[in-house]
Amino acid sequence: MRMKTNDLTGMGLRNLWRRKTRTILTVLGVVIGSSAILLMISLGLGQERAFQKSLEMFGNIRIIEVDNYGSWDSDGKTETPKLNADTVEMIKQIEGVQSVLSSYGTYVQLKAGKYEGGAQLMGVNLDDLEAFQFKLGEGELPKPTDKNALIVGASFAEMFYDPRSREWQPADFDPLITPIKGFVGGEYDQNGNKKRAMTFKVSGMLEPSGNNDYTVFMDQAALLKLIEDEERKNPNGNGGGKKKNEEREYERVQVLCETIDDVEVIHQTLKDMGLGAYSPIEYVKYEKQKMQTQQMVLGGIGAVSLLIAAIGITNTMIMAIYERTKEIGVMKVLGAEVKDIMKLFLFEAAIIGLLGGLVGIGISLIGSDVINAVNASMQADMMGNFDYYGELPEIQDISYIPMWLIGSSLLFSTFIGVVSGFLPAVRATKLSALEAIRNE
């Protein structure tokens, strides 16, 4: 005779309630184990989440910065190729390279109304900016007919100040509508004579990015013409008097890789070419390996607690068999199937795991909030000891419990209960009905 599901459920719940003290203590073991492992994993996830936020400081991690400093060999010598158009063309041929942004640079002194400032003017192919995720926040890209047109970073105005003010105050003007005067290489020539100012037009302003907010871009060909004119007028100036037909080296070269997996290979290829190369991917790899190790340690600590809880469930169910031997015998005599007896014990074990998981989740959520609150308070106290310009850095939570972790924790604790109750359930099904009835 097969027992109904409702009968099995009711009997299982009554059995747990009848031995409620033991049930509560067993559930408490699961609570400790599940909350421990949940909090440990949440600390690892919180650290990973904070790390992902910190990656925003690096911008696009598929970008490799290239210079011509090279690297020293065992003899203390280095052969560094010139960072010129030929070298850039070689870089473009490397497998996995999506785009290359090469730029010339020169200092320019700027004036906007009563404000003055200085900037490093970078000459680039403006069509390459989009590939490197430079997004315009305001304005537009310069037209071919625009003379001395600029694309500026979001913090361009912050580079200016009022020279007549006794206290430094941030400049207050709109670069897109304010006429900008400038002097390539500085306001005065090598003889101390004031140069004639040229007019610049800000065509567009980039969205805030953190990395290029103070950068000023100009069409590469237009900037080269300005540099050559300056070198011709001031042969002993900062330009070094380079001849117009002399091949120039780029001041900055950035390589955009197609995928993150390509970065490491291309990074090493550039070094093998004798070029200096830097990519945050090295830091990212190191940090990820460190976080994986920490998560394994934290998860292991929580797993030990859960293992102890599983042993507690097994012990409880075995003791239940000894105490309910006669009950099991009566069930068999009345025609209960072996499967029903096994289901009954597995159901009771699963309920213990489920209850422990639910309470453990609640405690973990409260514990996570407490940990984050304490961390926020400590971070705020530390920040109070330093002066910051603008907004304070965002305080990151060090414990993070997403919904998928809550669901997984509940399923896992229930699964642990079922697994822990399996052997006792099998043992219960193997009891002889007659011997069980005679045993009191």
Write the layout of secondary structure elements.
Layout lengths: L4 H14 L1 H35 L8 E5 L17 H8 L4 E16 L2 E10 L11 E4 L9 E4 L7 E2 L18 E5 L13 E9 L9 E4 H14 L18 E6 L2 H13 L3 E3 L2 H43 L1 H9 L4 H46 L19 H27 L3 H6 L2
Parallel strand pairs: 3-9, 5-8
Antiparallel strand pairs: 1-10, 1-11, 2-3, 2-7, 2-10, 3-6, 4-8, 5-9, 7-8
Helix pairs in contact: 1-2, 1-8, 2-6, 2-8, 2-9, 6-9, 8-9
Q: What's the helical proportion of residues? A: 40-55%
Radius of gyration: 35 Å
Instruction: State the major sheet.
Output: 6 strands, mixed, barrel
Structural class: alpha+beta
Shape: elongated
**Number of helices, where a helix is a run of at least 4 consecutive DSSP H or I residues:** 10
Q: State the order of secondary-structure elements, H for helix, E for strand.
A: HHEHEEEEEEEEHEHEHHHHH
Mean pLDDT, as a whole number?
Answer: 81
User: Going across the major beta sheet, what is the strand order?
Assistant: 2-3-9-5-8-7
